[in-house]
Amino acid sequence: MVTAVRHDHAAQRRAPAAPRTAGPDAAPAYRIGALAARVGMTERTIRYYEEVGLLDTVRRSEGGTRVYSEESARRLRFVQRLKVLGLSLEEMLELERLWKRHGSNRSVLPRLIELLDAHLAATSERLAALATLRDEIRAYREHVAQRLLAEDTAPITAEGMVADAEGRQ
Known about the structure:
Helix content is 60%, strand content 5%. The chain is mainly alpha-helical. A hairpin with a 5-residue loop joins strand 2 and strand 3 (66-69). The protein has a domain at 26-84: Multidrug-efflux Transporter Regulator, Chain: A, Domain 2.
């Protein structure tokens, strides 16, 4: 009896490829699936960052497949970090433009500090507003709990309504 072996080409295309190197001194090269797995992003996000300019246009293999370097992975991890810190896409692009214009951290880092300081101030304001809201919620909760306690001890009128301390319904 002959058993047919079905090869799942779609699964093979989705599987992240291991880094490839051309020789012993060559830097690793990643296909988009492997890079996505390495940095914890979706392939779509990586393509979008490439499209908007946060990731340099990558080289392509002879077959037209995008090939990413370790530098691409480093840059994407940096973008992730900036996103966690609250920087907008526009702010990240501003930093990217500075880097491309000057080619050094000397021009990028002072602006990054300014952006982070602004985000620290905004975060402090939000925390203060949230602390105020927390206090308001606690106070209102206490008010409601006291009211419930008062209703539990208030006399019930003939109509089934709870009267307040002065006998009003």
